[in-house]
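INTERNAL AUDIT FORM
Audit reference: QA-55
Scope: verify that the stored structure record matches its stored sequence.
Auditor: D.O.
Record contents follow.
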Amino acid sequence: MSDLLGIGYSGLKAYSRALSTIGDNIANAQTPGYARRRLEMMEAVGGGNSIFYRGNTNPGGVDIRGLDRSVDAWLIEDSRITSGDAERSSTKLSWLDKVEGALSDETNGIKTGLTKLFTTADQLTSDPSNRTLRSQFLQSADDIASGFRTAANQLNKMGEGIEGAAASGVDQFNSNLNALEQINIGLRKARPGSTNEASLLDERDRLLDKLSSQAGVSATFDNNGAVTLRAAGSGDLLVGGGAVNPIAVTAAADGRLSYSIGGSPLAISTGSLAGLAEGANHVADQRAALDTMASDFANQLNAAHQAGSDANGNPGQPLFTGSSAATLTVAALSPDQVAVANASGSNGNMLAFGAMRGAADPESRWSGHLASQAQTVASARAQDAAAATRADASAAARDSVSEVDLDKEAAELLRFQQAYSAAARTIQVARETMQTLLSSI
């Protein structure tokens, strides 16, 4: 009867642990990174049995082998790769959208100002002495200069914003590296199959997910589940052997970002940090292009205005001063100093202004630049949509293995409740049988 008591006791202990495991699954059904757990059980070795031989009619109860996490290593790795790609494209797109907003006519009015300048020049050809039109011509030039300064200021702020976001992202990345090493220490001490080990493994995977979404990483695991983490591609050691090697970010004078580890360059091609670097490159390109256009426009329009003469017969003065978009300003001219005339007539210079309109005039060049920016954003948006779709599909495949199904847990809960009741009944039968035997003596 003592064997029967032992069988019942082992069942109570095992099924109580199983019920507790199911309770953990239900409680953490919505916890990010939580992998469903299942209690592994095996037949216990009964009296007269050994690990090499088991009797056919000598049951020994049930033993707990440990907790098993429902994970698929390949699906997890695929999910991390696609997540990194999605974060890169999403981060890049967000900054490209901001650049498009800064260059849009609704924000800076450059396109409207250029159109108004040429329209007013056309009107002056019909009424060259009209001071109101002359004032409107100067106001249009001032609107153009103000628009360039507005766009340059916004792009400068974006560069600063990306630099700050990159610095914050690198700090978070390094903090996650340190946290991962602490998890490694805990895993080397944890008892295999324990709840503590399962919790540490869940946290390890959550940290690896975060690190993968920030930058490309490659992970290998020892027998305890402790991870050695390297940068994808270069193979630089990030975490391993009790050491943590943080990364750093540096911004160039034009705002372009570069990453390093231990003083050596580190190429990051995926994750949000890569997206920030690509966004910084695009902002730097647009800042340079804006400065070039501001200088070209100023030189082109200045030359056109200086080719004429004003109302007093004096040579035309430059319309703009400044050598960059941020410093472009309109000259302090009076309406009478607008160079409407030239040697061919009282409206000759404005006729020459109108003749500038074409494939290479400022208005057409600016419209072409906006169209090119819109095409770049559209391409980035298509890439982001594709990357997000791949990431969602990979996450769904991973979740199909790891996530908690409440219906399944409810069925398991009922099954182990009945098993627990049966184990309790076994002990009760053993006790009643023993009492009957003792009372008959």
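Auditor finding: record pair retrieved intact. The mean pLDDT is 90.
Action required: none
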